Amino acid sequence: MHVKAFGGRNSLPSAFAGIKRMFIDRNSKVMVLTGAGISAESGLKTFREPGGMWDTYDWRELATPAAFEKSPEKVWEFYMERRRQIRDAQPNEAHKALVRLEKHMNPGRFLLVSQNVDDLHERAGQKNIIKIHGSAMRDICASCGSVLDSADSYNEFPPRHACGGLLRPDVVWFGEPLNSRDLKTAMDWLLSCDYFIVIGTSGNVFPVAQFVYQTEATKIYIGLEEPENSRGFQQVKLGKAGIVLPELIEELCEV
Ligand code: BV8
């Protein structure tokens, strides 16, 4: 059942009255998926909106293994700038609301899967999280696979690991497979969760964009505009995550 999107804080038409009556029991199983939209109110750019990252830069030149092979310096310059912006950003009300939701749930009944490579969920206090596209705040050695916390600066570019291999940001680039263990955990949760709440992602990037079609859970989307995969959701609530999410979680969990 696809219920049309609507905007505004209190315009809960009857079709959404259920969202008010729906109550998430502490023992329900809740899976949350976030995208760049949840970090927008922290001042970080999204990707596909006008003025967004891929509107400004060509991802083929910056977020693929071939790009790194061709010009590691250029790729490092791009990620060091994003790292600076992430370090200057703070978690917003939406990140904090998800921490309250996790605390509301009984142990083992909450999982956050984030496509974001920033660390705002972690800095907000989120515990059970899978970063399915990796983290811009970690580096990995392209030769030996060692993972390091990112340094604020390097004395050479591109930086090298002690083993001599090139370091790269520990993110999943286009054309790279997602971590198989993370993907299996996500699949297991999709098959068993009661609620699948998706926030701030345009539904353009695969295989994550297909998740909504791979679960029988109650599926709610929160974002500024209808995502590409909006037909997969029973409920689409348009608005800023920093405003809508705290209100929704308060209604659903009375927290
Ligand atoms: C792979 C890390 C296979 C780097 C990123 C079908 C099946 C499988 C693959 C494919 C397929 N079709 C195409 C592919 C290939 C490709 C793909 O999906 N291409 C797209 C462009 C069509 N997928 C891949 O390459 C994936 N790998 O499939 O490998 C394989 C298997 C075996 C062996 C080899 C290969 C890897 C994909 C991961 C790529 N990495 N990022 C980095 O970030 O630097 S993707 C990038 O997009 C980010 O991770 C980002 O998180 C992700 C999703 O973007 P969104 O988060 O949705 O951001 P967007 O701007 O689009 O939307 C933001 C939304 O927020 C908007 O809707 C907006 O309205 C809303 N919003 C804004 N403000 C607010 C808000 N909402 C609420 N409140 C607000 N205030």
Description:
The protein is of the alpha/beta class and 255 residues long. It has helices at 17-21, 53-56, 59-62, 65-70, 72-88, 93-104, 120-124, 180-192, 241-253, and strands spanning 30-34, 110-114, 129-131, 134-141, 147-149, 167-171, 195-199, 218-223, 235-238. Strands 3-2-1-7-8-9 form a 6-stranded parallel beta sheet, with helices on both faces. α7 (120-124) links the parallel β2 and β3. α6 (93-104) runs parallel beside α9. The longest helix has 17 residues, at 72-88. It is globular and about 55 Å long. The two termini are 28 Å apart. It binds ligand BV8. Residues 35-37, 40-41, 46-49, 52, 63, 115-117, 133, 171-177, 200-202, 204-207, 223-225, 227, 240-241 line the site of ligand BV8.
Brief summary:
This protein has 255 residues and is of the alpha/beta class. The protein has helices spanning 17-21, 53-56, 59-62, 65-70, 72-88, 93-104, 120-124, 180-192, 241-253; strands spanning 30-34, 110-114, 129-131, 134-141, 147-149, 167-171, 195-199, 218-223, 235-238. The protein contains nine helices and nine strands.
